[in-house]
Amino acid sequence: MPRVLPDAVLRITSPQGPQPIVIKIPSRHKHLIPLYVFIPPTTASSTADDLELSVLVDFHGGGFVLGHCHEQAPFCAKLCRELNCVAISVDYRLGPYAQFPAALEDAEDVINAILKPELAAYKELRSGINDFLLRHRRPNVRLNPNRIALSGFSSGGNLALNLVMNIGPPELPELWPSPFPADYPSEIPVLMYYATIDMRELPSVSDIIAGFHDVPRSFIVRLELEKHLLPAYLSNDKNTNPRASPGLADVKNDGLHSRARCLLVLAEMDTLSLQNEIWLQKVWDAGREKDVSIEKFLGVTHGWTQFPDSWLDADALSQKHEAQNKAVDFARGYWKV
């Protein structure tokens, strides 16, 4: 449904803004990756000629076959406003048109478009942002390559974690490194909301909604669609690949990037909470307990933070806002803003 709606609907679903601009950057495979880019309102009042801003790169959920950046607008706009950063929601390729590892390749290409000035994607992203700012008489903006945060919801959390993993032999035939270099100079906040990091188990498992009586029927249908459509993106014989299921990968010896700092936001009535907690224990056992935090919310289920406010009762809505504030505070702690 979000893909049927025009971008103008965001003025209703995300009224506080800022409203995003859409910039399409070239990928390694020459297709264009649409990015929904949120520019902080402070640029309108700045007297500087040139600004350097931190950047959040965000990935929607949808089981790699559904979902859209429209769903992420309230979250991205909030972090953009409160952290004074540029927020980028990535419209990565989905099945059945594309197959694994298409979404991950798009995610890597977006990070490289921030880190590598020699790439055409870097130039397209920067010119797209500054063309918009010039038209609105605002100062130029540069994305700070040393202050990047990641966020991801459900399958988007899979992508966010993947981007800070280095995986190679014996798990893969050859090294598949993180796009963040080993000598990356600063911490990388990674905000993972009910992440699908073990693709052997999906959020459509029936007990996800046990005791949660107010979940709209449309959400249950969406989970069932994800389950049946996912094989068009990721065949069952590939779901144990550590790049498909990064929760299965080794986190030792900088398997998890030494600069990664992760926040896991989990829902009590979500079967995926268990796989996240298993991964958390792996990280702790590897001696990285200080680098991963967990926040678990009671009485809510998978995807609740992305539900429209009108779908939620007062308690779930309050916890949605709290979960968003946890993300702001977590990133702010590392960015010192």
Automatic annotation (TrEMBL):
SUPFAM superfamilies: alpha/beta-Hydrolases (SSF53474). Residues 56-305 form the Alpha/beta hydrolase fold-3 domain. Keywords: Hydrolase. Coiled coil: none annotated. GO terms for molecular function: hydrolase activity. Gene3D superfamilies: alpha/beta hydrolase. The keyword Hydrolase applies. Pfam families: Abhydrolase_3. The keyword Hydrolase applies. This is Alpha/beta hydrolase fold-3 domain-containing protein. It comes from Lithohypha guttulata.
